[in-house]
# Entry
Amino acid sequence: MENFTYAISTRVYFGRDTLHNLEFEIPKRASRILFVYGSGSIKRLGVYEEVTAILKTHHIQYQELSGVQPNPRLDTVKEGIRLCRDHDLRFVLAAGGGSVIDSVKAIAAGVPYKGDPWDFFTGNAQVHNTLPIGTVLTVAGTGSEMNGNAVITNTTSQQKLAVRSDLLRPQFSILDPSFTFTVPREQTAAGVVDIFSHILEQYFSPTPDTYVQDRISESLLYTCMKYGPIALREPNNYNARAQLMWTSSLALNGLLTYGKITDWATHAIEHKVSAVTDVTHGIGLAILTPAWMEYVSKDDPAGRFIDYAQHIWGIDGRKKEAVVKKGIEKTKAFFASLGMPSRLKDVGVQESQLRDMAASIVASGDVGKFRRLNEDNVYTILKNAY
Ligand code: NZQ
Ligand code: ZN
# Structure
């Protein structure tokens, strides 16, 4: 295990009827805020009404920024920064999924920064200062509610890039699983795949002696396998929604990463697919994860793929190659059982785009730490997934 500093600072209010905690979390931080949400699901849920009632009762001045799209856009971030500056807003509240929360993080970092907020994503600027952030989560998947990551799409350059800073962790997040009852079937399934993928990106590590991290990861994978299908069958099953919501936070709040090197090649590749096609992130991951596994599992001296096949899917056998292959087949079958497509050509990718996509994915260097992938490696994975 490697050295690490444990720091997960977000206060989480988890469970039914926890939204009222906004009543003291916001007034102690600011009297003028930006309230950010997507295209209307929070109005149908009643969350909008409840949040605005709390703000009014506590005499909090607020501006709204609505219409944040899935695969959130840089233009929307710039609009949020403008609103904060014009109205002297001192706090940013997100109500929605990862797209709304990531936008809020980029806005929070962009307000005190004099340059273009895209600089944070290209690595031309570091985050040194932010407005404080709070979130009300309405869909499980990204873990953005507890982490310091934001992923934003620049439609002009067709790039979808991430920034990471502990300063971007929300001060607090409200996680009421009943808010996710209305999440549509496909989005629920995409969320489960996203959680599953976050765990795998950290599970497949070149670092030896990570027994405790590996066993925690396996518990979280089991939770996805058990409760993902239940949430699809019974959308109003509180326990299934609660298990998934908390797993999504634990999968990407840093817990699994401490003490080890992690991979993230599949995410780097998927973000390019989303940038080009606007496909839902979890759907892209369902297609690419098995293709990545098939490619990198051929070179696995530490036997991580054997562990995965045996511990997660209960596969035994003397022939290592056959065990690994079955583990990957089981993964594919699980994603298919959630209704996920399995080919890039089914989500709008053209074969003629694959070479340029591969070049763009490695533009700042090879991707992946479990196995480093260059342009040709990435191209082969894309082609195999096509
Ligand atoms: O626009 P609204 O009305 O909010 O509708 C959303 C949207 O259409 C809808 N939705 C949300 N809550 C709902 C609901 N519909 C009905 N009932 C509810 N309770 O769901 C749709 C998708 O929302 P979105 O926020 O895009 O989903 P998700 O949470 O999966 O976020 C995906 C984004 O997060 C990024 C992804 O790349 C993608 O851009 N990621 C962020 C990460 C992070 N910050 O750590 C890590 C991830 O790997 C990921 O890259
Ligand atoms: Zn993800």
